Amino acid sequence: MAGVVEKFFIASMLMWIVPIAVLYGFNHSLFPGIKNLSSESLTLLSGFLAVISVNVVIAFYICMAMKEPSHKHEPDPKFLSDAKASISQPKPTEADSSQGRSKEE
């Protein structure tokens, strides 16, 4: 379980760090050829690439999750028993709920 949380934390941090690094790199001319662009083009390109970078991080996280072995994780037995018990209980009908109100009043 600790590995899953660690991967989630790393992906969450990267979703903040990578787009900010892209914007920083564009605004401080760290990438080659940036000085030739107009300010409007620079803003559009840096924003577009920042959004793309977040999607790349999300895709990377999904790929890591898909490679996780499914047999490694087993559901909590208490959760399963509670879920099965809640499914087997009959749902109250509208007539039952109206009778309950008249008794309370």
Automatic annotation (TrEMBL):
<dbReference type="Pfam" id="PF09446">
    <property type="entry name" value="VMA21"/>
</dbReference>
<comment type="function">
    <text>Required for the assembly of the V0 complex of the vacuolar ATPase (V-ATPase) in the endoplasmic reticulum.</text>
</comment>
<feature type="compositionally biased region" description="Basic and acidic residues">
    <location>
        <begin position="69"/>
        <end position="81"/>
    </location>
</feature>
<feature type="transmembrane region" description="Helical">
    <location>
        <begin position="7"/>
        <end position="26"/>
    </location>
</feature>
<dbReference type="GO" id="GO:0033116">
    <property type="term" value="C:endoplasmic reticulum-Golgi intermediate compartment membrane"/>
</dbReference>
<feature type="transmembrane region" description="Helical">
    <location>
        <begin position="41"/>
        <end position="63"/>
    </location>
</feature>
<keyword id="KW-0472">Membrane</keyword>
<keyword id="KW-1133">Transmembrane helix</keyword>
<keyword id="KW-0968">Cytoplasmic vesicle</keyword>
<comment type="similarity">
    <text>Belongs to the VMA21 family.</text>
</comment>
<feature type="region of interest" description="Disordered">
    <location>
        <begin position="69"/>
        <end position="105"/>
    </location>
</feature>
<protein>
    <recommendedName>
        <fullName>Vacuolar ATPase assembly integral membrane protein VMA21 homolog</fullName>
    </recommendedName>
</protein>
<feature type="compositionally biased region" description="Polar residues">
    <location>
        <begin position="86"/>
        <end position="105"/>
    </location>
</feature>
<keyword id="KW-0812">Transmembrane</keyword>
<dbReference type="GO" id="GO:0070072">
    <property type="term" value="P:vacuolar proton-transporting V-type ATPase complex assembly"/>
</dbReference>
<dbReference type="InterPro" id="IPR019013">
    <property type="entry name" value="Vma21"/>
</dbReference>
<keyword id="KW-0256">Endoplasmic reticulum</keyword>
<dbReference type="GO" id="GO:0012507">
    <property type="term" value="C:ER to Golgi transport vesicle membrane"/>
</dbReference>
<dbReference type="GO" id="GO:0005789">
    <property type="term" value="C:endoplasmic reticulum membrane"/>
</dbReference>
